Amino acid sequence: MFQATGAASPPPAHEAKNSSGGSTVQRSKSFSLKAQVKEICTACQKTVYPMERLVADKFVFHNSCFCCKHCHTKLSLGSYAALHGEFYCKPHFQQLFKSKGNYDEGFGRRQHKELWVHKEVESGTKSA
Question: CA 19, CA 23: separation in Å to the nearest integer?
């Protein structure tokens, strides 16, 4: 029923001839067969799949693992505050800040002025 008459048609644009005369298919440069990098949840250290992925301050979480450090309530991207890589709900972040009046003491860290005093004492004893 179908007969080839005349010269063969040229290969389509996406095919190219190799040196032996056969044709090979060129793949798109954006296509890759490399395995995707598995992302790990910062909180539970388990694999995070794309449907349950949440990124906050460059940390990857499961939706259910993104919780307040103080009260463990589930957080959303609009209801959290972060300090030193730790995440809090906004009410507890304000409460902990107000309890001591600064970020360091309220969140269990040494104040920066204590570090300055130690440096002044060390520099004063070395020069004397």
Answer: 9
Express each pLDDT in 100-121 by its tens digit: 666 555 556 666 566 666 666 6
Q: What are the structural domain ranges in the chain?
A: 50-100
CA atoms within 13 Å, Cβ hemisphere of 34: 7
Query: How many residues make up the chain in this entry?
Result: 128
| Spatial distance between the Cα atoms of 58 and 43, rounded to a whole number of angstroms | 13
**50-100 fold:** Cysteine Rich Protein (2.10.110)
pLDDT tens-digit readout, 76-108: 999 999 888 889 999 998 888 776 666 555 556
121 Cβ contact list (under 8 Å, min separation 6)? none
Residue showing tokens 């103080």: 70
